[in-house]
Amino acid sequence: ENRTSRIICISVLQYYKSLDEIRELVSNAKKIASPCCQLVLGDLQIDYNILKDLYGMLRGMCSYGMTLLGAIRCILKAHSMKDFFTNPKELTLKRGDLEGICADLDVQCQFIDTKLTMNWARASAIITL
Q1: Within the chain, what is the greatest distance between any pair of CA atoms?
Q2: Fewest CB atoms within 10 Å of the CB: 37, 51, 66, 104?
Q3: 96 in helix, strand or coil?
Q4: Global pTM?
Q5: How many C-beta atoms lie closer than 10 Å to residue 63's C-beta?
Q6: What does each of the 129 residues of the chain score in pLDDT, given as a tens digit?
Q7: From the CA atom positions of the chain, what is the Rg in Å?
């Protein structure tokens, strides 16, 4: 029986509609995982704040060598400001939400400092299944 040792989900969870869908993701990952498999989650919106998010994007882009003006232009091209402020809010987590789901499913959750995307305001976590 083939089992996987690592599952990676980056920039996905914010599009889920509820914590129940995240619980289902972790539960299903557990079913296909080998012992000690790691579920890597990146780009998590924790305690979302639009200004914090914009700052995180600018900081991340500039840290990779982009000028501040270039980073601002990139953000404006990617998101019209009208859409940025009027789209329904994506799913936002609190650290305790993910930790609670993991405790209920008897798996370990660890938030990590490593940035997996250019948005430095977003969090990353490793769940050991």
Answers
A1: 52
A2: 51
A3: helix
A4: 0.79
A5: 12
A6: 678 999 999 988 888 889 999 999 999 999 999 989 999 999 998 887 778 888 888 898 899 899 999 988 887 776 655 555 545 567 888 889 999 999 999 999 999 998 888 888 899 999 999
A7: 16
User: Tokens 């404006």 label which residue?
Assistant: 76
Q: How many CA atoms lie within 13 A of 38 on its CB side?
A: 11
- 15 DSSP assignment: G
CA 101 to chain centre: 15
CA atoms of 116 and 125, how far apart (whole Å): 10
- The stretches of 5-91 forming alpha helices (DSSP H) are 19-32, 50-63, 68-78, 81-86
Backbone angles phi and psi of 96, in degrees to 5: -65, -30
Structure token pair of residue 53:
């998010």
Residue located via tokens 């299903």 = 28
Q: For residue 97, what are its two tokens?
A: 């939400």
With CA atoms as reference, report the closest residue to 41 among 115, 96, 121, 120: 115
